[in-house]
Amino acid sequence: MTMFDAKQIANWFLAKHKAMMIEDDAIDPMTQMKLHKLLYYAQGVYLAVSDDRLFSNDILHWDHGPVVEEVFQEYKGRKSIDDDITEHQLSDFRTVNSDEMVNSVLEAVYDKYAEYSGSQLRNMTHSERPWMETKHNEVIPVELIRDYFKSEVVE
């Protein structure tokens, strides 16, 4: 199993979302807030089903929910983050997609959570143990995420 970087997983979500927007113009653009919550849910589900991390980056407890700082810095100050998908993002999509288990987890997470807005996802994460049991600006422990997703999210 290859562990990915959160930016690669973010690029998977951005490319997937852009493709869905092209098919259905009622789908809203991806926001940074929504992307971070999808990364959190992807990490949680993957931890629950495999006991391994999907990506190596830490997830932090910020005011608006779980955030991966490296991805935040990449899109800082931008509201819409999926205007144009670059060749680099498509390359990351293909690389991530080539791992069957990772792809199936990401597809499941996207199918379950992409319909929600960033604000709705923020509110959902605020009611979940990993966020509630971690102090502001601290790393949300991987073990806490894994245990929560094993007991509460993944069936």
Automatic annotation (TrEMBL):
InterPro entries: SocA_Panacea
All copies of domain Antitoxin SocA-like Panacea, residue ranges: 35-131
Domain of life: Bacteria
Protein name: Antitoxin SocA-like Panacea domain-containing protein
